[in-house]
Amino acid sequence: MEDGKLNPNATMGRIHTWAGKDYLIKPDDWADEVYNNSLRQEYTVTATGSSEKGTFYLSASYLDNKGITAASDYKRFTSRLKADYQVKSWLKLEGNMTYGHYDRNYLNTNSDGEGNATSTGNVFAVVNMAPIYPMYIYDANGNKIWDENSRMELYDYGDRSIIGLYRPWLNQSNPESANRLDTRNTEGHIFNGTGTAELRLPYGFKFYNINNFYLHERRYTNTTNPFFGQYKSSNGIVTKEHERYWSYNHQQRIEWAQVYGKHSIDAMVAHEYYRMYNYDLWASKQNQFSPYNKELAGAVIMGSANSSQGDYNDEKWLGRASYNFDEKYFGSVSLTREASSHFHPDNRWGTFWSIGAGWLINKEKFMSNADWIDMLKFKISYGENGNDDIGAYRYTTYYNIANSNDNVSLVPDSYGKKDISWEKNGKFNVGFDFSFWNGRLSGTFEYYSNITKDMLSWFPLAPSFGFTGYYANVGNMRNNGFEFDFHGDIIRNRDLTWSAYVNFTSNNNKITKLPDVRKTLHVDDANLDGYSSGSFFYTEGKSRYTYYTKRYAGPDPETGEATYWKNVYKKIENSDDNELDANGNPIVTGYEKTTVYSEADNYVIGDVLPDVYGGFGTSLEWKGIDFSVDFQYQFGGRVYDSTYAQLMNSTAGYGIHVDMLNAWSVDNKNSNIPRWQFNDRYMASGSDRFLVNASYLSLQNITLGYTFPRSLISNIGIEKLRLYLVADNVWVWSKRQGLDPRQSITGTASGAYYSSIRTISFGVSLTL
């Protein structure tokens, strides 16, 4: 080190001296391994220093993650500086800064690499394609054809452009070719800096001034190749986009703490202001001079161009106080007043508070003889916070500006509601923490009741209104249930420790209040009033995640066509009109089947949330050998298996599930699967047929390790040496192979996302 800086001539792994002290410059983290289908190399250099006045920490890290998949790699440089300086006995300054630069090439998905079920960069997109189409185009001798323009083998795009083969699924696309020829690049900079001033004041007061600045800039470069596929006629398209997110946060805080004998008191008053800006600028051009010129200047036909910006402000005043007596009785209170720019100025401020108490029962005199109790604590609390996560400007109606024959035209975009305000979440908890027999049995038992008031949700409108819907405070909701967490040592002696744990949570969700203005839909058969949004029906007394769809009635016994249920209504005598009840709703007298999907009615199917979920596992340690296994589970709930539904269709070129072999036929009339009929529009239409049990059991982790005795390694300068073998995400058992209910507890599963990747790794942990 020289003057607090890294000496450029310093050799990693050697001792260097600065200010009379020695520092070790070394590669702190280094890996060169195949990990998640990538070749990963990472190097980190760190340095630390200290004196009577302050300390500092400096690090620099470089990561090169080369994907085995074409056009997939990630490079990153990061650095961090953390320092503090005691200017005076009453004044301390601290700084913490990080900077990072990254350069990423990714597959044909969205900018976050997530994609959707049909993104060509998503391997699961090809699940729906019948396995009869070639990857490449071959000549009469079965050899791949070389293309001089693209300088690569000819890939099949299924568009009859080279050979007469037509592919309905992913037509004019080829994921492998696109990955090699197209560009999906993001380059970005991230800076995060925090400066803190701490002032020690008389009478136990401390004042903190904390200021944070965050900046994230990223630049996207996307190109499509001019040789093949749907963009061939454009002769290559280049798109550039620049995004900037920056924010600052200012916090002023006064703290006070004192101890008076057995009484301990501390309090805090603070003010905080947060502001975030974001800017976005993008443009595209086509007809490139060369696919290797990836700038807008390299193309000649102007495409679209646009820009936008956003602004978010949040301000809060808060206070907190806590008290404990003799480390036995505890109490705390807090009050927050907060404003958000997501709401109209008349409705921006919300007030939130909390109160809590605790009691260490084992410290009472009447427990003095219960020496088997290490700790027994009773706790109870209630607290509120606010939610404003609905996006900007939802309180006002706004329009998009469009070109109408070169005149300005306004197109409806978002309908605003001035009266929307904070969603308030109140959380009540009561329970016990315990530890018995020197920690051989420990855990937590807790009951909770979380109440959401003025729930913010999207409220749909009829298309004739001109807007699809708006955000509103639609009602109140409650989640309540129990949580258990138990850990125990079954065997614990000098050589052997065998431990186990189990935890589970049960939750009951219910909408407790829905204003009459929200009750725009009546479900005739269930006699419920509420409204439908997406796949769910909102009504009082039912779960927020009550599924609402058509009911499948099985194949028609004679024709094999898919049938669905519809209501049968009571008719007025000698009339085709329905008789109405006292509330003006038609009276349901029964149900009948229909083969016309549009005639079928929607029904309240039930709650899709699980009944119980949690985990369990066990571990074993014996003479240096350690072994552990961990599971996660879920009982109950339902999930809509959209991937399976797509595979149960009969469309040319699409994949078909093996279950279709058991479809209805004249020789198999007892099947629950409709007949296999080409272009039958209703054979796999959306219904409760594809809502399946969401219960699962997953083997999350298996670890086997061995730690060498210190007596064998201490004489060669090694403090600790451990070998280990780890398997993660080993297996999942669910209702249907390939279905992963863990994606969501709200009844949805998508082919757009990978399940957790199974990894098996071997390692050595060495401490010198």
Q: How large is the count of helical segments?
A: 3
Which regions contain 5 or more consecutive residues with pLDDT less than 50?
A: 1-38
Helix content: under 10%
By DSSP, the count of extended strands is: 41
Main pleated-sheet profile: 22 strands, antiparallel
From the alpha carbons, calculate the radius of gyration and give it in angstroms: 32 Å
Oligomer: single chain
Shape: globular
Structural class: mainly beta
* Average pLDDT level: 87
Distance between the termini: 23 Å
Instruction: Note the beta-strand portion.
Output: over 45%
Report on the structure:
This protein has a 22-stranded antiparallel beta sheet. A 3-stranded antiparallel beta sheet has the order 26-27-28, with no helix packed on it. It starts with 13 loop residues before the first strand and ends with a strand. The chain is globular. Strand 8 (146-147) and strand 9 (152-153) form a beta hairpin. 2% of the residues lie in helices and 56% in strands. The protein is mainly beta. The chain has a domain at 1-103. The chain is built from 3 helices and 41 strands. The longest helix has 7 residues, at 175-181.
Summarize this, please?
This protein is mostly beta strands. Residues 1-38 have low confidence and may be disordered.
